[in-house]
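Researcher: Good morning. I'm working through a list of sequences from a screen, and I'd like to move beyond sequence-only analysis. For each chain I'm collecting a predicted structure so we can compare shapes side by side. This is the next one on the list. No need for commentary yet; just the structure.
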Amino acid sequence: MMRDNTNRGSRAAYILTVICLVLCLSFFTMAVSASDSQVYDLAGLFSSEEADQLAQTVQALQNKHKMNFAVLTTEDAEGKSAEAYADDFYDEHIYPEGLKKGGVLLLIDMDNREYYVSTAGDMIYYLTDAYIEDVLNQGESSMRRGAYADAVRSMLARIDQIVDKGLDGSRYQVDRDTGKVTRYRSITRFEALLALGASLLIALLACLGVKSSYSNIHDYRYDVSKNADMHLHRNNDLLINHYETRRRIHRNSSSGGGHGHGGRSTTHHSSGGHSHGGGGRRF
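Model: Good morning. Structure tokens for this chain:
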């Protein structure tokens, strides 16, 4: 009887050990998966199925646009505003591991009851102030009814559409602290090669033209005494009356058409010194 109790105790301990190992392995796998996909559900707002779907969406967007996409939820903002918490988290977890070109982080802050969009790098130019309002609008109704995964999916889909439109010369950044303006300027490799080729062709044609014109000139002298002629006339101009009219032209200060999607992106600096754009809304 004593031996049976001992065997049963050993088997129970063995089973308990196996269960603990499996749970630890599962937790480690989930943590690695979350880190790899840049979906950080610290507040536990998503079901496992929702988290997997969001992870796939985020990974697909990163592969498509070659920029960082991240989703973060928290119940403890560590005494920071939603803006500061999102920016600092991006600097600490996304910048070192992700693509340096730029990216976006979507935060659901249950502590401050605010959802926030933080941008960095080239994404600042893509998500202008007006477009960030668009993104926030996409998620607002779902956020208010507690459908957090739906809200994130809607916002990611809108960001995808915006980035697909590309950039133009109207985009610029304005530092809200200093007022410094930085305009977007970019040229592709193909455009650079095309411009270089066109410049070389124009220069070559100009050289050939000059060479051809000079090759037709022989020993020629111009007879000034026979061909030159000069006549002088006296002319007096008098200013009788002078009138000047000035009219102020009022210009439209709107920065864009349609829904007012101007090219301005207001930026600020995180505690780590990195430049970020962004905006948020309470729910």
